[in-house]
From TrEMBL:
Organism encoding this protein: Zingiber officinale
The protein's name: Peroxidase
SUPFAM superfamilies: Heme-dependent peroxidases
Family: Belongs to the peroxidase family. Ascorbate peroxidase subfamily. Belongs to the peroxidase family. Classical plant (class III) peroxidase subfamily.
Catalyses which reaction(s): 2 a phenolic donor + H2O2 = 2 a phenolic radical donor + 2 H2O
Major site of localization recorded for this protein: secreted
Subcellular compartments: Secreted
CDD domains reported for this sequence: secretory_peroxidase (cd00693)
Enzyme class: oxidoreductase
Amino acid sequence: MASPSSSMIHRLLLALSVVSAAVLVSGHLSPEFYAAKCPNLRNIVRSAMAEAVRQNPRNAAFVLRLFFHDCFVNVLRIAASGCDASILLDGTAAFASEKFANPNNNSAHGFELIDAIKARVEAECPATVSCADVLALSAHDGVASLGGPTWTVQLGRRDSVAAYQAAANREIPAPFNDLSKLISLFRDKGLSPRDMTALSGGHTIGLAQCSNFAAHIYNDCNADPSFVASRRRICSPDGGRNLAPIDSETPFRFDNAYYRGLVARRGLLHSDQELLNGGSQDALVRQYSADGEAFAGDFAAAMVKMGALSPRPGTTGEVRLKCSKLN
């Protein structure tokens, strides 16, 4: 009998890595959480996201970023906050909205899209599916719609009844962070440097405002001169809101081109290029740049792991009827 090919072995290891990550998920989360209560949930969300991405491919990046920023705000003094849809709240007199925290203000988008998907879910399954789970499913389906990997989306989260603007300012990684700061921020969430480097690959479908990369293209020496020149044509040293793709090779395809850009010293953000700048993640970046399957497997496993960051259990929190407002 012929021995299995290396690609077959890699696909098996990829599948096992996603399963292993799923085992780490808190016990109350399950991919079958709504099987009886809302059996058509996956089809509703998948259809809505496919339509949204056809209309504007950037919608996939918008929703992925919302999910990341939502999960990353994990207020330790409050039991089980994390992937709890707190980022979707408009805010009240009692708490400031995360929408207007520094990492999100004027740059986070997709709120209306999640509200619209939630409305479709409510029409079929009233007061059943949390906004946190709608966001988790939408992020998955957005990535898949642009050719990215799939993973088992664990479900059963509850929605927060508050938002945490100060925590968002403190805990979400910034585009000017260096490698040590990035590693520290991710480790604070129980995510390894490998998880961090894989999750950073989500930037392959993102755009960034000039204000977030001006300092990099005018002050950093670790950048390709021709790339710097091209970006300076749309971005002054003072910044601004002009946009550029983080992955200039395939900006609307979820693939490993982001890492090829880093190897070529064409990282748009300082924090991106820090992943390959003579540090601990250089070898992994080079591996991902050459092996798209390795990146896809690690990204999928890291998404499962991040999606399990202290989700609200049981009857804690609520199931919001509209994602931007408390019930």
